[in-house]
Amino acid sequence: MKLITHGCRGSIPNPSKEMLRYGGNTTCFELNMDNFQIFFDTGSGFQNAVIDNNKQIMIFFSHFHHDHLQGLAFNKYLLKPETKTFICSALVNAEKLNKIIRRYFSGDFFPLDLFENLDNVTFSNFIEVQTMVRDQFKIEAIKLNHPGGSYGSSVTRKKKKCVFLCDNEFTTSQADELKMFVEKADVVIWDGMFTKEELRVKTGWGHSSIQQGIDFFSNLNCDKIIISHHAPYRTDAELDIIEQSLPTGIHLAKDGQVLKL
């Protein structure tokens, strides 16, 4: 498996020159396997993903806030009829998912009904996709703490495990369940939008801090931790300072980063 970062910025894209090295695109991670391409969210970074029509394409939405959905319409490969794509979310069933996305990409918010003629896209229930792929890999979901709801995902294949945990406001009450969910993961993507100081005045915004990620994983059996969902105002220079202080095994996400599992 390969984990590819297409977007790791939070809230809004920021393509300014101060954000070039870590990237300004909003959340989109790709897990590339022999027969599958899995995408966790389709923020603005989704436009840069190269889709392989010889593989089964699956998009798992954690939730539907603007920064996790806005790039769906702008990947040229998705619009080709030969690109067969399954879209699902543990947050809602297939019917509601269809309505949410069609509403977003039509009428008041978009110049055309994107999915009116996209017969290659199938909206599915999460449990149906779980059943469909169970002989190839295992995918699980966990409820996260975020306004409007959000779900994290875990994909396991041939003893390799990748966990995606954006967007989540970490609380001690979810610690035990989260520990079980991420145990023995090869890589965990953690929501570290805020610093410890910022979090004091950002309670209820639905995001965790970098320090919380460090503390949470200090006693867990996980190989690599990737801090993502960088604040839109966080510059490369500021992120460099943060990265220099991180313990071994914890890294900051960067657009274009490829990690082999």
> Helical proportion?
10-25%
- Report the order of strands and helices: EEEEHEHEHEEEHEHHEHEE
> What is the distance, rounded to the nearest whole angstrom, between the alpha carbons of the first and last residues?
5 Å
Provide the structure class: alpha/beta
Shape: globular
Mean pLDDT, nearest integer? Answer: 94
Number of helices: 7
Report on this model:
With 261 residues, the chain is an alpha/beta fold. Helix content is 20%, strand content 24%. It contains seven helices and 13 strands. The protein has helices at residues 66-69, 94-104, 126-133, 175-182, 196-199, 210-217, 236-244; strands at residues 2-7, 28-32, 36-40, 56-60, 85-88, 121-123, 138-143, 151-157, 160-165, 187-191, 224-228, 250-252, 258-260. Strands 6-5-4-3-2-1-13 form a seven-stranded mixed sheet. Strand 5, helix 2 and strand 6 form a beta-alpha-beta unit. The radius of gyration is 17 Å and the shape is globular. 46% of the residues are buried.
In short:
With 261 residues, the protein is α/β, with parallel strands linked by helices. The protein is 20% helix and 24% strand. The protein contains seven helices and 13 strands.
Question: Which descriptors apply to this entry?
Answer:
261 residues; 13 strands
